[in-house]
């Protein structure tokens, strides 16, 4: 579908992964290592405590220094 800003929005309603294949052109601004996505992790706070994400291999989960992750503080 197309979102309110005219951008392509890929949605997996059945919970399956999304993989972009083929030559999509340089104007798509999608890095080669960002063509597959198998889910989203949402962390929700129910109290005033901070959420701490730690461990090994976090770069593979998208928490590396050069990774693109969504982050919000509300």
Tell me, rounded to a whole number, the average pLDDT.
68
DSSP, total strands: 2
Q: How many alpha or pi helices?
A: 0
Helix content: under 10%
Shape label? extended
How would you sum up the major sheet?
2 strands, antiparallel
List the helices and strands and how they pair.
Layout: E1 18-19, E2 36-37
Antiparallel strand pairs: 1-2
Brief descriptors of the model:
74 residues; little secondary structure; two-stranded antiparallel ribbon; 0% helix; extended; flagellum; cilium; cell projection
Describe this structure in words.
- This is Flagellin.
- By secondary structure, the protein is largely without helices or strands.
- 0% of the residues lie in helices and 5% in strands.
- It is built from no helices and two strands.
- It is extended.
- It starts with 17 loop residues before the first strand and ends in a 37-residue tail after the last strand.
What's this, in brief?
This protein has 74 residues and is low in regular secondary structure. The chain is built from no helices and 2 strands.
